[in-house]
From TrEMBL:
Organism: Mycena metata
Family per record: Belongs to the metallo-beta-lactamase superfamily.
Signal peptide: 1-20
Keyword entries, A-Z: Hydrolase, Metal-binding, Signal, Zinc
The name this protein goes by in its record: Beta-lactamase-like protein
Amino acid sequence: MFLHSSLSLLLTFLVGEASASYRDLGIPASSSTVEVRVFNVQNATLINEAHAFIHPIVPGHENASFTDHAFLVDHKESQKRILIDLGFRKDVLNYAPSITPFFTSGVVQIESLAKDITDLLRDGGISLESIDAVIWSHTHFDHIGDMSKFPNTTRLVIGSETDTSTFPTFPNATLQESDLAGREITKINFTTASLNFRGLSAIDYFGDGSLYLLNTPGHLPGHMSALARVTPTSFVLVGGDVFHYAGQMRPRPAFQTNFPCPAHLLEETKSSISTDFFWSPHSEDGAFDLRSRAQQLLAISDTPDSFYAAPITAQVSQDKVAAFDADPDVFVLIAHDISLRSTLPYFPASLNNWQAIQLKEKTVWNFVDKTNPGFVFGPM
């Protein structure tokens, strides 16, 4: 009898592990949802700056190329609409003076400055007056856009540790008065959060379980992410700059278990991923073995000019988000994952059906395809 009970408990445990769901992350159940749509506002390349984001740098991959995503979130019950991040502003030389040298020096090269997020919204029939709030994941210039284009009725939501000093009062400030002037500013203080999902403090934004703000520090003080419930049992995690390259998050053991690399890519990586720079227990010289790699391929840059303000803290945030990345009920999307540029359904398409169309399974290994712009693991 005891043996039978023990076996039953073991079987229940194993089945539970195999059918892991969002409930294992500590997220409460709810029937309230939001709709999430994503814009790729611009594509940009930072010349000779990849070292400030990742390590190692394989020869030929010294430049860092990124998308610049903005997320539109509709809360049907309240009829409120929010934006998470804005991308670049169109008139980049009108950033604060501490920022403009990135553009005048040619370090930052943007594919097109014809339109910004406000233009894309209007083109899509979304009035700026309908935007109840803009949430900045953080205040780097490629996320803040030009808030002066939004009506004063649009609130600004930021992390409580965000530096809100502005130019010209503070000559070296990265924000300027027009970014904040004349609007309500809400600071999210995670020290008062009553929810915690796998180590991430969470605040229920609408109070109904449809959208949570998550504390993900390290990249910049005040950095936060968002967890949007798009069906009662599935989510999109909008990660801001928790990571910049998919290889900073993947592969990890739980991720590989739930999302095995497609066979054709697994075979390709044997020769495409350089064993001079990457290794795993079953690798041999000139033959990389992805399946036995137990840690992510890319480390966070900790150079003096790193774009991560606190690399160790940023790594902790990445490790926490990794549990969501491995969960079959959560699709993690960041601001700059260029490996998704040709496969992510952009506005006006909705991301709410990502699980039904198996979008995660189809895209999360894009970054190891040697023809993908996110591939940085072998000499060019």
